[in-house]
Amino acid sequence: MADMQLEDGESATFSSLGLNDWLIKQCQAVGIRRPTPVQYHTIPAILQGRDCMGCAKTGSGKTAAFALPILQTLCEDPYGIYCLVLTPTRELAIQIAEQFRVLGKPIGLKDAIIIGGMDTIKQAMELSAKPHVVIATPGRLADHLNSSNTFSLKKIKYLVLDEADRLLEPTFSEDLETIFDALPEKRQTLLFSATLTDTLEKLQEVCMNKPFFWQSKAEIATVEQLDQRYVLTPAQVKDAHLVHILQTILNEHPDHSILIFTNTCKNCQLLSVMLRELDFPCAALHSMIRQRERMAALVKFKSSVAKILIATDVASRGLDIPSVQVVINHNVPSSPKDYIHRVGRTARAGRGGMALTLMTQYDVKLIHAIEAHINTKLTEYEVKEKEVLEILNEVSVARRGADVTLEEQEFGERRLINKRKQLIRDGKDPDRELHRKKRRRKKKLSS
Ligand code: AMP
Q1: Distance between CA atoms of 208 and 267, rounded to whole angstroms?
Q2: Where in the chain is the domain with CATH 3.40.50.300?
Q3: Which end of the chain is flanked by fewer CB atoms within 10 Å, N or C?
Q4: Residue with the nearest Cα to atom 1 of ligand 1?
Q5: 10, 13, 36, best to mutate for ligand 1 pocket (most atoms within 8 Å of CB)
Q6: How many angstroms does the Cα of residue 27 sit away from the middle of ligand 1?
Q7: What pTM does this model have?
Q8: Residue 289: its pLDDT value, please?
Q9: Which of 313, 345, 338 is nearest to 58 (CA)?
């Protein structure tokens, strides 16, 4: 793995940050040789016992920045449950657990991944076996806290909120309240994200003891090696432009991996059916498919069996897929923050990458807002319109076919049925629960 560029602390080593030899050796074994800026700045503060807020570019080594000092102090005084890591998506939880497992192998680290879509009973057993580290998404952990008293979080030493700003959005507030009620007042709280600054005040409420705050010097939160482009396309022929771009990139670079982001689960599914129809090897990742399928899609993409992954924003935060050369925004994200997270899936760990945003006549304002936020002008990616026209008919036919397939699969209804089944499995009355959820949403909107 390539060493990442250091902003400062060029000569820093992990040993000069106070890490023990066993951890340094383990880092070396996985190709982590010198600390990145976020690690250089935050590891000593965490080892001193301070609360910490780290705001750094995506792909900058944030996970190891908290995992390494936690593992060091855990090794000195091992018990369970020692540390709780919360993160907004299931895939991120799995990824963080993988880093903990690799780095914590020499001390026989025990972890538990507590996420939706997986066996609740097995998770309850894992929790009561007192793992050292629990990595969880808020909803499922709150469910366990509400339904069981076989484990306790009252002794945790560390609480980590990864992608902290997202976790503090209203969607998670009820679950976070349940979780925070179960935590000890005395603890060390560590908050990390690529975009923390907007929600700083709110975050400071969570960090109780005057947190150490570190923010990457780079003004924009996207990496310098990223080539950021837009493609002008009338909305009606967006699909044909997308297909043309994919053909062009894969013809020139057959080994490239491409991640396409779109705004809804339905669009995600539609695009994947349409692209498969057109013989592109692709996988889809969104919240309307089972967790097993979500993981299989990621494995296929990571192993290059599928060169293209189409995803909603569930994949936009923190996911470390080392070799994504191109990110395509099929829709322009409505918040610049989401743009930063999406494009951060490429140009990771010092590698180059390209982000390409499809821009229709309706998106001009959104693009300007993004450019202002990242302080960079996107440049135009020229497409050969004649070639787009040549494939227009074929793409339209494939798209209509995809529409029909989804209708046959009763895509929207399947979601509702799955939700009701899950509620029944959890011993709840689906009608009452869905009604309560609706009421809560209404209340939130009116408050
Ligand atoms: P993260 O920002 O935590 O998603 O990390 C991005 C990638 O960088 C992961 O694959 C890490 O294994 C890798 N990484 C973390 N720290 C370093 C380092 N100091 N040097 C090289 N690679 C690193």
Answers
A1: 42
A2: 15-215, 226-408
A3: C
A4: 61
A5: 36
A6: 10
A7: 0.74
A8: 84
A9: 345
Which amino acid is present at 149? Answer: N
Instruction: Please name the amino acid found at residue 221.
Output: A
Atom of ligand 1 nearest to the CA of 318: 4
How confident is the model over 152-210, as pLDDT tens digits? Answer: 999 999 999 998 888 888 889 899 999 999 999 999 999 988 776 666 666 667 766 77
CATH classification number, 15-215, choose in 3.40.1280.10, 3.40.50.11540, 3.40.50.720, 3.40.50.300:
3.40.50.300
Q: Is the model more confident about 386 or about 8? A: 386
On the question of pLDDT at 417 being above 70, the answer is no
| Residue type at 321 in one-letter notation | I
CA of 401 relative to ligand 1 center, distance in Å: 42
Ligand 1-lining residues (CB < 6 angstroms): 1, 3-4, 32, 34-36, 39, 59-64, 318, 320, 348-349
Reply yes or no: is the peptide bond before residue 135 cis, omega within 30 of 0.
no
Which band of pLDDT confidence, cut at 50, 70 and 90, is reported for residue 148? confident
| pLDDT of 46 higher than 60 | yes
The pair of structure tokens assigned to 127 is: 């929790």
State in Å: Cα 100 to ligand 1 middle.
Answer: 12
In ligand 1, which atom is closest to the CA atom of 99? 12
| For range 51-64, the mean pLDDT | 84
CB 324 within 8 A of CB 258: yes
Q: How confident is the model over 86-101, as pLDDT tens digits?
A: 999 998 999 999 999 9
Distance from C-alpha of 447 to C-alpha of 441, rounded to nearest angstrom: 10
**Paired tokens of 407:** 């209708």
| Residue bearing the CA closest to ligand 1, atom 8 | 61
Q: Looking at domain 226-408, which CATH architecture does it have? A: 3-Layer(aba) Sandwich (3.40)
**177 Cα: distance to centroid of ligand 1 (angstroms):** 31
What pLDDT, on the 0 to 100 scale, is given for residue 222?
58
